Task: inverse folding
C-alpha cells in the first residue's frame, strides 16, 4: 500500500470523506469544520506567493469560497488538503498576474536553470534551533528570506517543504513536470540555506538587513 | 565510485528524500564524511527543511479565522431545505387542502339559502291541523289572514298537506321554518299581532 493510499484509509480521512459527503448533500455549515484544519496552510500558501498579508488573506478567503462552490468537483483520488492548496495557488497566481500586468512587471523566467548551483562556502554552518521559531522576528526573517527567492522556486518550496505535498502532488498543483519540481526544489533549498547561513555578515546584512555581525538567534 | 562536491550538491535533495540507489548512497555518504563543505551544505539544507516545515511558520493575522468564516457565511446559499423540510411543507399543504374539502363536504356544510321561502318545512308536527287552499299552493294555520278562500279551503294534517305538495305559509308557520342558525322562533301566529307590516295589515283589511 502506498503512503497516500494508507493516508486515505486513516480514520481522519474517513471522517473528512464523511464531512465532504454531508456538505454535498446540503449540510453547508459543516464546511467550516472541513476547512478548519487547513486555514493556516492556505493563508501561508497565499502569502508566500503574494508576499502581501492583506492580499494573501483575501486570496485565501476567495479560494475557500471557490472550494465551497465547487465541492462537487472534488475527486476522491486526490487529498482534500491538496485540492484546497491547489485552488489557493491558482487564486494567488491569478492575482499575481493581474498585479504584474498593472505594474508592467516582466514575468518570471519560468525555464529551469539547468546549470548547477554552487552553494556558498559556509563550512561553519551552525544549526538554527527549532525553538527559535517561537520568536516572531525569527519567523519574519525566514519569511523575508523566502520572499527574496524567485517565484518559481518559492512556489515549489512552499508546496513541498512547507505544505508537505508529495513531489507528484506539487507537480500537479503547479502544472509542471516532476523533474522540474525536483530541480527547483533543490535550488530553493540551497538558496535558502545560503541566505540563512549565520555568521557571514555578507548575506545576512545585505539581503536580510540584519545589523552587521549580529545574529537573530 | 568517485563522487565530487558538485555531484553531492546536485543530489542532496534526492539523498534527503531517500531516493538514491544504495550504491550511490554509500558513495555520497563516504564523501560527506570527508568533505566539511558538503557536510555543511547537507546540515544547512536539513535545517532549512526542518525550519520551514514547522507548523509555527504558518502564522495567520489576528482574527483571520473569524473573518474567513464570516465571509463564507455571507456567501452561503440560504438553507433551501432538506428532504425532511420538504416533507413537512408538503404535509402541511396537504392538511390545508384536506381541511377545505372536509369543511365543504355535506356533513359539515350549512346551506346558505337566500330566502326563507326556499327552506323545507321542518319541525311541523305531522298531526297539526292546517288549512290548505284549493286554488293555491300553501297551507296555513286556521285564522291566518293570508288564506285565499276564493277556490275553497279544507282542513288536513300538516303531514297530508306536505305529502300533497303544499308549502307552509311563511307568515303563519314562520316558527317552523326557522333553522337553528336563524333568529329566534316567533310566537305562534296571532292575526292581531304587530308582527305584520303596515302593508300586510292593509292587504289584510282589504
Result:
Amino acid at each position: 500500500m502506498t503512503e497516500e493510499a494508507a493516508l486515505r484509509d486513516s480514520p481522519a480521512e474517513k471522517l473528512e470523506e464523511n464531512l465532504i459527503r454531508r456538505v454535498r448533500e446540503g449540510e453547508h455549515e459543516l464546511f467550516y469544520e472541513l476547512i478548519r484544519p487547513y486555514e493556516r496552510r492556505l493563508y501561508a500558501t497565499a502569502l508566500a506567493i503574494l508576499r502581501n498579508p492583506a492580499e494573501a488573506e483575501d486570496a485565501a478567503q476567495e479560494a475557500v469560497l471557490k472550494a465551497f462552490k465547487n465541492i462537487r468537483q472534488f475527486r476522491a483520488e486526490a487529498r482534500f488538503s491538496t485540492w484546497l492548496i491547489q485552488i489557493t495557488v491558482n487564486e494567488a497566481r491569478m492575482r499575481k498576474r493581474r498585479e504584474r500586468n498593472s505594474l508592467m512587471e516582466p514575468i518570471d523566467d519560468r525555464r529551469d536553470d539547468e546549470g548547477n548551483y554552487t552553494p556558498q562556502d559556509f563550512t561553519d554552518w551552525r544549526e538554527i534551533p527549532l525553538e527559535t521559531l517561537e520568536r516572531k522576528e525569527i519567523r519574519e526573517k525566514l519569511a523575508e528570506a523566502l520572499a527574496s527567492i524567485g517565484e518559481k522556486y518559492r512556489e515549489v518550496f512552499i508546496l513541498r517543504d512547507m505544505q508537505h505535498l508529495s513531489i507528484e502532488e506539487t507537480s500537479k498543483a503547479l502544472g509542471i513536470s516532476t523533474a522540474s519540481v525536483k530541480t527547483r526544489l533543490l535550488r530553493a533549498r540551497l538558496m535558502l540555506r545560503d541566505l540563512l547561513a549565520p555568521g557571514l555578515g555578507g548575506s545576512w546584512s545585505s539581503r536580510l538587513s540584519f545589523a552587521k555581525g549580529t545574529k537573530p538567534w | 565510485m568517485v563522487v565530487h562536491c558538485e555531484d553531492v550538491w546536485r543530489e542532496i535533495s534526492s539523498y534527503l528524500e531517500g531516493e538514491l540507489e544504495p550504491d550511490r548512497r554509500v558513495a555520497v555518504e563516504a564523501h560527506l564524511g570527508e568533505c566539511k563543505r558538503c557536510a555543511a551544505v547537507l546540515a544547512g539544507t536539513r535545517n532549512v527543511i526542518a525550519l520551514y516545515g514547522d507548523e509555527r511558520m504558518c502564522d495567520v493575522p489576528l482574527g483571520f479565522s473569524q473573518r474567513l468564516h464570516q465571509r463564507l457565511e455571507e456567501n452561503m446559499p440560504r438553507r433551501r431545505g432538506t428532504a425532511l423540510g420538504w416533507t413537512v411543507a408538503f404535509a402541511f399543504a396537504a392538511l390545508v387542502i384536506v381541511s377545505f374539502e372536509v369543511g365543504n363536504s355535506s356533513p359539515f356544510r350549512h346551506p346558505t339559502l337566500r330566502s326563507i321561502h326556499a327552506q323545507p318545512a321542518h319541525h311541523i308536527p305531522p298531526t297539526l291541523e292546517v288549512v290548505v287552499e284549493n286554488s293555491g299552493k300553501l297551507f296555513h294555520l286556521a285564522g291566518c289572514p293570508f288564506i285565499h278562500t276564493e277556490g275553497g279551503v279544507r282542513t288536513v294534517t300538516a303531514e297530508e298537506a306536505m305529502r300533497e305538495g303544499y308549502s307552509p305559509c311563511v307568515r303563519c308557520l314562520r316558527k317552523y321554518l326557522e333553522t337553528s342558525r336563524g333568529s329566534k322562533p316567533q310566537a305562534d301566529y296571532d292575526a292581531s299581532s304587530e308582527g305584520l307590516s303596515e302593508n300586510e295589515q292593509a292587504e289584510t283589511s282589504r
